[in-house]
Amino acid sequence: MFRTKRLLIALVLVFTMLAGLLPAGANTGGAKITILPIDRAKFLAGQKFDFQAEATDLPGAAQYWEIEVNGQPMASYFGKAEETSGDAKTVRYTLRDVAFENAGPVTVNVQIIGDGWVESRSASYQVVKAQSQAKPAKNVILFVGDGMSLPIRTAARVLSKGMSEGRFNGLLEMDQMEELGLITTSGMDSIVTDSANSASAYATGHKSAVNAMGVYPNSTKDPMDDPKVENIVELAKRSRDMATGLVTTSDVTDATPAAMVAHTRRRGEMNAIAEQMLDPVRRPDVILGGGSNHFLPKSTPGSKRKDDRNLISEFEQAGYVFAGDRTSLAQTGTPDKLLGLFHLSNMNTYIDREVTKNPAVLKSFSDQPTLWEMTDKAIQILSKNPNGFFLMVEGASIDKQAHPMDWERSIYDAIELDKAVGVAKRFAAKNNDTLIIVTADHSHGMSITGTYHELDGKTGREGVRVYADAGFPTFEDKDDDGFPDNPAPDVTLAVGWANHPDYQDDFKFNPAPLEPAVVLDGKAVPNQERDPGGALQTGNLPIRVNNEVHTAEDVPVTASGPGAGYFNGVLDNTELFYGMVNALGLKPGK
Question: Looking at CB atoms within 10 Å, which of 46, 153, 224, 556 has the fewest?
Answer without folding.
Answer: 224
